[in-house]
Write a structure and sequence with these properties.
The protein is α+β, with helices and mostly antiparallel strands. Helices cover 35% and strands 21% of the residues. It has a single domain (15-124), classed as 2-Layer Sandwich (first zn-finger domain of poly(adp-ribose) polymerase-1), CATH 3.30.1740. The strands form 2 sheets. It has a 3-stranded antiparallel beta sheet. β4 (44-51) and β5 (54-61) form a beta hairpin. The longest helix has 19 residues, at 106-124.
């Protein structure tokens, strides 16, 4: 995580146990955050655990993982990282430090730029 920005999410849904790994895909998977395909031979983050008596596994592409690592402090909710980031950018009126963007993957950078541009457009329509 960088020091440029810090999105705090109050998550009260803690797992009874948790395991994470960074495997290389042997088959196609879908990212739990953005929904894009994680292709064979691509690295991704796999997180498994028991939440509220339900075993779940979340797979996060490297692009969404870089967003999570740069923008979030502590907790986040699986499946809502991009929505929470978009809300944060709207509240900041699209003013995000370059320090937040420089360490992102190229694809993650484009996602964030699109969110910033949308925030600016919404501000201009008011």
């Amino acid at each position: 995580m960088s020091n440029c920005s810090c999105i705090y999410i109050d998550s009260f849904d803690y797992s009874s146990f948790y395991r994470e790994e960074l495997p290389t895909a042997r088959k196609m998977h879908m990212c739990s955050e953005c929904g894009r395909d994680i292709n064979k031979e691509e690295n991704y983050k796999k997180e498994s655990g028991l939440w509220q008596d339900k075993f779940e596994t979340f797979k996060t592409c490297i692009d969404c993982l870089s967003i999570r690592n740069e923008f979030f402090c502590g907790d986040w909710n699986f499946g809502s990282v991009l929505v929470d980031l978009e809300d944060y950018i709207k509240e900041a009126h699209g003013e995000i430090s370059e320090d937040c963007i420089i360490n992102l993957t190229d694809n993650a950078r484009y996602k964030v730029f699109d969110m910033i541009e949308e925030g600016w457009q919404n501000d201009n329509q008011r």
